[in-house]
Amino acid sequence: MYFAIKHLHVTCVVLSALGFLLRGYWMISGSALLKSLPARVMPHIVDSALLLSAIALAVMIRQYPFEAGWVTAKVIGLVAYILLGTVALKRGRTRAQRVSAFAAAIAVYAWIVSVALTKNVAGYLAAVV
Question: Where are the transmembrane segments (predicted)?
Fold first, then answer.
């Protein structure tokens, strides 16, 4: 069961990233598709499956936020990613703010994935230092 849930989780990670990149492209290009019903609904479906699978995996491997540093780092990164994503796709007042928030959100997303792969709070930053 663990591998099925992990596979679902990784699939949702990829779908979530692709969806965010596509919506970011639409934001940058000024496309009306950003406001379409699928663009507004699908991220919630994918991200809900992603979150539920993450919780299931945490329970299965007994690694919880505030007990396992790398899991705590991922949760904090997730909050930062969500906040940056909302600025990038909705709340940014200027195009420059939205593009900057979009780039920062992508960097945070990559860091979250690197933390997951390395099980290290520093993620890919550990290799740089």
Answer: 6-25, 70-89, 101-127
